[in-house]
Write a structure and sequence with these properties.
There is one protein chain. This protein is an alpha+beta fold. The chain has three domains: 4-88, Rossmann fold; 97-114 and 183-306, 2-Layer Sandwich (D-amino Acid Aminotransferase, Chain A, domain 1); 118-180, 2-Layer Sandwich (Dna Ligase, domain 1), CATH 3.30.1490.20. It has eleven helices and 13 strands. It has helices spanning 17-30, 47-55, 75-82, 92-99, 101-110, 129-136, 159-169, 215-219, 234-250, 285-292, 297-306, and strands spanning 4-10, 36-42, 61-64, 118-122, 140-144, 154-156, 175-180, 185-192, 198-199, 203-207, 224-227, 256-263, 269-275. The strands form three sheets. Strands 8, 9, 10, 11, 12 and 13 form a six-stranded antiparallel β-sheet that branches. α3 (75-82) runs antiparallel to α4 (92-99). The longest helix is centred in the last third of the chain and has 17 residues, at 234-250. The chain is globular, with a radius of gyration of 19 Å. It starts with a strand and ends with a helix.
């Protein structure tokens, strides 16, 4: 069989650039050289070369190892659609929708998937701290609306924390999401496939470096422990897997997603968000979930690519 040519995109210009570079290098090192001819492009420095090669059909498929703006938010996918170039992971609409935490929650709520209470704030509007505290109660989780890798997220335990957290989160965009804090255990589920997506076993994340699975916990060696399958009631595990598949389908995702949940003391699940390009570093969750069911990283990447040539 003739080797297919893969364009591996990483880097870019978002505030998650460094993580994307790590992801790209991890993927580059693991891709099966007997199956694929791989050319790498850092979209911060190689955009012109990439576009020229794309126009000249120098590759058969794009593998985006990009996170955040201009990589995971649908803009890259729209450009690739215009160039008529196939790519791994979700399409333009699904990527854009999943990037917006509030709009994602609206979609999954329609599917009867429980989510935390929330308030949306827009930059420039008057902020009523007393109203926020009354509606959500302290602590409050503060998130930029369209950022990943836990960038800009904080948990406010006091009104002063809340004011500071809101100010900090607005550094990453004009819209932020405030959520009810769910005290409990952090769970995540990887879903693979498009026509008939399947869920890997539920993984529990135990943060060692912070109060939650924050940037330091994600990207520092020893920052968190990952237990797969999670030691949770069977019924909760089944529900988390079903919710994840339902979210994947409802948002229109393809190839791979990872949905994150909180499980409270009563074993109730709350959907938090969905990731359309999950991390692929040595410490990332989806490759570890695949490994837990006997799929090595190289084979995992083969599956993601081959789905787009079937």
């Amino acid at each position: 069989m003739k080797k297919k040519k893969i364009a591996l995109l990483f880097g870019g210009t978002s505030n998650e650039r460094e993580i994307s570079i790590k992801t790209g290098k991890q993927i580059q090192g693991a891709l099966n050289k007997d199956k694929w001819i791989v050319t790498t492009y850092d979209l911060k420095t190689d955009m012109k070369k990439f576009l020229n090669d794309a126009m000249n059909k120098k590759f058969d498929l794009v593998f985006p190892a990009l996170h955040g703006a201009y990589g995971e938010d649908g803009r890259l996918q729209g450009m690739l659609d215009m160039l008529n170039i196939p790519y791994v992971f979700s399409d333009c609409l699904s990527s854009a929708l999943a990037m917006n935490k509030y709009k994602t929650k609206l979609v999954v709520k329609e599917k009867k998937i429980p989510v935390p209470k929330d308030i949306v704030l827009n930059k420039g509007e008057e902020i009523n701290i007393s109203k926020i505290v009354k509606e959500l109660k302290l602590p409050v989780v503060i998130k930029p609306m369209e950022a990943g890798s836990s960038v800009g997220i904080s948990i406010a335990k006091t009104r002063k924390d809340l004011e500071k957290g809101i100010k900090d989160a607005f550094k990453y965009g004009d819209e932020i999401l405030l959520e009810q804090f769910i005290k409990g255990r952090e769970l995540t589920v990887t879903v693979i496939g498009t026509e008939n997506p399947e869920a890997f076993p539920v993984m529990e994340i135990i943060a060692n470096k912070g109060a939650f699975y924050d940037y330091k916990s994600k990207y520092t060696k020893g920052g968190s422990d990952h237990i797969c399958p999670a030691d949770i009631p069977k019924s909760v595990g089944i529900a988390a897997m079903e919710y994840s598949i339902e979210a994947h389908k409802a948002i229109g995702c393809k190839d791979l997603t990872r949905s994150d949940f909180m499980m409270d003391k009563n074993n109730k699940l709350y959907f938090i968000e969905i990731n359309t390009i999950p991390g692929m570093t040595a410490l990332s969750l989806s490759p570890q979930a695949a490994e837990a069911v006997g799929i090595e990283f190289t084979d995992f990447l083969d599956i993601l690519i081959e789905q787009n040539f079937s």
